[in-house]
Fold each of these.
Amino acid sequence: MSGEIFDASGAAELTAATRGSREFVAPLLAAAGLPADLADALDDTRWDDEIRAEGEEALSLTGKDVGTPIIHFSPPEGTALFGPVISRLPSPEDAVRLWSYVTGLASFPGFAELKRSLRERPQLRSFGVEPGTAGVEEDWHAGSRKTTP
């Protein structure tokens, strides 16, 4: 469902101040053809404690210096890693190849990290990028993102 919401027309114009609000969600749900009452979940707190606990459990497996996604391989004893973070949707064949590499790294005893800074924004219509095209490339420079020519 998130693909429909993030690809909905108008998603790019919404500001960070409105994200997580009905003003943010309502037009995206409508544009994606989804029921408006899904926005009721914004005010539903019954899952908050469980979500927080699961987040804390995930961070206890990786360390608190990572973000999401966190994948736990072969729980409960297996390793947990942050990632993978990709900016483009892979083809089905590339997705299988990528997953094979990720699981291979996760199975290597002592593997801890493989990282570089984000090179391009996620390839979503809401960022103005049409499927099959590359977005604006970025790199970190002196602590902030710098657009590359």
Note: The mean pLDDT is 81.
Amino acid sequence: MPSSTSSMKAAISALLGTFVATAGLSTAAPAFADEDPSLWGINGTFATSSNGAYAKLNERYEAQPGEQATWTISTQCVGPADCTGTVKSSAGWSAPIYTNDGLYFVKRLIPGWRYCDDGTPVQGLQVYKIYPVGPDAHYADVSNEYTGEDHTMGPSGSCGRNQWPVVRMPFYMKKIG
């Protein structure tokens, strides 16, 4: 009987070892084997352009002043679609950047964005929605070029109008350093 007890113990030890190894694998962090973590996020210096020639003011095409600037972007990512960081613009402002559903968002407040006829300043909330594109102008996982929209909105009721002033225009960004 002693030999069957020792073989039983050996079998149980082997099963426990397999169970522990399997449990250890199932609790490990998921790996993105086909993705290089250094490619996640947006980092570097970029030339940016908001094309005012194709702007819409309250959903009506109306040319608006465009904007060109150089942005320095630094992000940290926990996964390919979970990044946060900071944008510093050559125009003198800095704002947070983050991802949501594959889009990058940059949001900032602009004091004195517009002025009413009586000179009252109106603050605007500017939101850039950005995504990477390939040579065919379609979405690409990894790219040095980005496109999207520059969307700025003021408060409803400003300047005596029960309507949010909204300006939307195409946005483009290309890595330069």
Note: The helical segments are 2-26.
Amino acid sequence: MFFYTVYIIYISENFFEKTMADKIKFELEFPMNVSTPLLYQYISTSSGLAEWFAENVISRGEIFTFVWNGDQEKARVIAKKSSERVKFRWVDEDNEDLEYYFEFRIQEDEITKDVSLVVIDFAPEDEIEEAKQLWESQISELKLVLGSA
């Protein structure tokens, strides 16, 4: 767990130093063995996100504060559809929107009922692989919490 915390801090510090022009959008899809409503609770609520995404998550209305190793980053919920998706836009210390965001989308196959979680994020070109590895470790943690590993 210590490795992940250090890694998150490294990515977090570097992430906020770059501008949107330096970042590339990427998507990752993860099969999840869990019900859509339960998964949605873990990607859309402060208590759910605190179980796997950050050490602590505090929500005040549409603003979520994510705490990693004492460092705080804030994001505003800009889109939300029950049991389907939630999109967060990073904000500055005055809660003004920044250019970049991250999004969670739940996809359920109509025939097989298989559930997947799609993560959409941005990273500088030279950090894409590190960002993907970070998300893979985060989603592995989510799967453990949900009992779907």
Note: The chain has a mean pLDDT of 88.
Amino acid sequence: MDRQSLLHELLDELAAHSPAAAMRHMRQWPGGRLSLVHVNVLAILELDGALTMRGLAEAMDVSQASTTGIVDRMEQRGLVERQRDDEDRRVVRVALTEEGRRLIAGMTAERRDHLAAMLDTLTDDELAGFLLGSRAMRRARDRYHAGQHPTPDSPGAPGAPGGPDAPATQEATR
């Protein structure tokens, strides 16, 4: 199979995941529905730590008024809390609660369990191929996010001469 056909089939496989299935799963989450907005807030606060309302609004790319309503609902569910700044009482920070941290940990554990169950159905050869492909995808994603967009023939690219997956040449082994 040529490279273009491989790319086309791989993109079809990667794009086959249905966002609707993920939403259906979040609607069945213990403790009530979990919206994508709430997941986004949880992820931002887990990554960045406590943020001011303004900082959270900017991270979410919404107005402060919208952020206030979102935080109100999440606070009622015990996922986040507002904290007054010790230095300046006018400043309010939004932080994860223990319940918010438990929810994130539970989502991570459940995702890992589901992935393990799916991977368990693969043969050893399929697992080895999937691991190789997943590592290649992670390297490509890291390069992409670093602003580097090498082509497969770029020096140092996997499989290219001198790249990490390049076959050893006689000169390289001397």
Note: Helices lie at 3-15, 19-27, 36-48, 53-60, 64-76, 98-119, 124-145, 170-173.
